[in-house]
Amino acid sequence: MTEPGPKRRRIARVAAACFVAQSSVGGAPRAEPIDLSASTVIQSTLQAPVQHYRIHATQGDLVTTTLEAGWPSGMLSVAPDVAGAKAFDRSRLRGEPRRAVLAFSAPADGSYILTVTGPPAAVGLPLSLRMNASSEPPIGPPAAAAGSYALLVGIDDYPGDNVDLRGPTVDVELLNRVLVENFGFPRANVLVLRDKAVTRDRLIRAFRDHLSRAGPDGIALFYYSGHGIQVDEGDVAAVGSLDPEDAGGADEALLLSDGSVVVDDELAALGAGLPAAQYVMILDSCFSGGSSLAAGDEYMASKGVKGVMLEFPYRMPSVYVSAPADSRRSAVDGDLRPGTPDVFIAASGTEEFAWTRLSGWADRRETRPASYFTFFLVEELAKKESADQPIDVVVGRARESTIRAVGQEIPASQTPAIDGPARGEKTKSVLKGGR
User: Of the candidates 106, 135, 164, which is a domain's last residue?
Assistant: First the structure.
């Protein structure tokens, strides 16, 4: 396969027009449209309690809008520019100065309405509105060398206000550091995707464009920290009869930053397409153990919410990823399904939540919020003696620390687990390729 060249980041132009909603307060006339390009800042005032801006974006553009307001309470929201359309993302004013940040991946070419709201008493007070849009961020840096490749995904920022997380973007930083410093991953071979960069299309392309570079003598590692959800499967399974959830009618899925999902069957199909000699998957999310990727009877779980708990509609795929017919990573002796990782590590059980520690880890020189399991896993991997120990022993220590800490501090049950045919091999064999 021809290795794809590096993709160049392009800054897209965003055209915008501002108009004021007619209201009972002031009855202000509609303003003349204001055309803007990316990174332009509007310095204005709130002319009515509901004020609208029109922006134009191309499908896949990452549009980020930052509102700084001179009033204490209000909201910034976005909706398709269609009569009666409901907002699909929103952000409330917080902090000091009062700020709301809204970021979304444009689901289609066209125009969108940004709405700024405030109380009647805020009319006439100052506001600052900055809009940026970028298209096609790099899916992977230029390859430094053949061998170990990692794709690390962390999502804190989700649509709406009620399911944002604190910790996953720190998790990927911690794991990145230990992979590079302790297991020799070239920095250029570790791709980190955070927050709004994690759309369905980009995640799938990152698997195919980046992890596939590992080659038949290399290691491919996929890590995800964010929400896991349980969704109705119906008749849309990508792997069909090999999926243990078929009879139960439910699938586990990774919830991405734009409200789209990647179901467990698709993770298996993406894994089946990797040519790497060793494939490692780590999921720190709720219900991750139920992702039906395990080789034996013990499944593991993913940070998650039930779909009905979301204040925004998650989007199931219209076309599902399927495994290539000539996959090197196919079923073995009828025990492993296509795409089964050589080592599969999950942060929680099939009906358990995975937790983050919001107070940080000052007692261990890390003051930022991070996920319990990822923090303890990284701590164990960083120990010099861990390289020559079986990886299931190393994960077992992180498991015990997680069980104890979550049980005492939440309190709740969180039971990490490890599976896969290489789970008994030395950690350096799994993560470094050394025997």
Answer: 135
Cis peptide before 411 (omega within 30 of 0): yes
The tokens for 314 are: 């998650």
On whether both 172 and 123 belong to a single domain, the answer is no
Would you say 187 and 243 are in contact if contact means Cβ atoms under 8 Å apart?
no
**Burial call 58-86: b when 16+ CB within 10 Å, e when fewer:** bebbbbbbbbbbebeebbbbbbbeeeeee
Q: What is the rounded distance in angstroms from the CA atom of residue 80 to the CA atom of residue 350?
A: 36
Q: How far apart (Å, rounded) are the C-alpha atoms in residues 77 and 113?
A: 8
> Who wins on pLDDT, 264 or 394?
394
Q: What CATH number does residue 416 fall under? A: 3.40.50.1460
DSSP labels for 268-284? HHHHHT---SEEEEEEE
**Same domain flag for 81 and 216:** no
pLDDT at position 82, please? 86
The pLDDT tens digits for 86-116 are: 887 788 887 777 888 776 667 777 888 888 9
Decide if 361 is inside a domain.
yes
Q: φ, ψ for residue 82 (rounded to 5)?
A: -135, 135
Q: Measure Cα distances from 395 to 92, 153, 277 in Å.
A: 39, 20, 21
Query: Rounded mean pLDDT of 292-299?
Result: 32
pLDDT of 13 strictly over 50: no
Q: Which two tokens stand for residue 329?
A: 């990573």
- Among residues 100, 135, 170, the one where a domain terminates is 135
Strand order of the sheet with strand 250-255? 228-232, 250-255, 261-263
pLDDT tier, 312 (very low <50, low <70, confident <90, very high otherwise): low
- Token pair 């955070």 is at which residue? 194
Is 121 found in the same domain as 171? no
Cα–Cα separations (whole angstroms), residue 410 to 61, 160, 369, 372, 405: 39, 25, 14, 11, 8
- Residue 71: CA atoms inside 13 Å, Cβ hemisphere, count? 22
